[in-house]
Amino acid sequence: QLQLVESGGGLAQPGGSLRLSCTAIGFTLDYHAVGWFRQASGKEREWVSCIDTSTRGTDYADSVKGRFTISTDSDKNTVWLQMNSLKPEDTAVYFCAATTRYYCADSHMDYWGRGTLVTVSS
């Protein structure tokens, strides 16, 4: 029953927007660091963004800084990733992950979602 469920992926045009959501089932995201990672076809998974659900502090990869915004709502046990000014190179499967540690790192995330596909193409 412990899982993360992503939604909101789909097709967007270059310059368009998508909003991804990550909802925890069976546990609370409070006192977690929750991150978004992505993996393009044939490529290594990379970190995109992270939020500390206690302090609401955020971090972004340089490739998405200024375009993506991560946020959380404790009452909904959900983390969102608002993606604006999308580029074809943003095309990837996006994964949500959570950890009780205070920062996001691919090597120590405790829970992973199954992923949601984002395709940016005209």
The helix content is: under 10%
Strand percent estimate: over 45%
Number of DSSP E strands: 11
What is the number of helical segments per DSSP (H or I, 4+ residues)?
0
Uncertain stretches: none
| Main beta-sheet annotation | 7 strands, mixed
Shape, principal axes of CA atoms = globular
Average of the residue pLDDT scores: 96
Termini separation comes to 38 Å
Written description of the protein model:
With 122 residues, the chain is an all-beta fold. It has no helices and eleven strands. It has strands at 3-7, 10-12, 18-25, 33-39, 46-52, 58-60, 68-73, 78-83, 92-99, 111-112, 116-120. Strands 2, 4, 5, 6, 9, 10 and 11 form a seven-stranded mixed beta sheet that branches. A four-stranded antiparallel beta sheet has the order 1-3-8-7, with no helix packed on it. A hairpin with a 5-residue loop joins strand 5 and strand 6 (58-60). The chain is globular, with a radius of gyration of 13 Å. The mean pLDDT is 96.
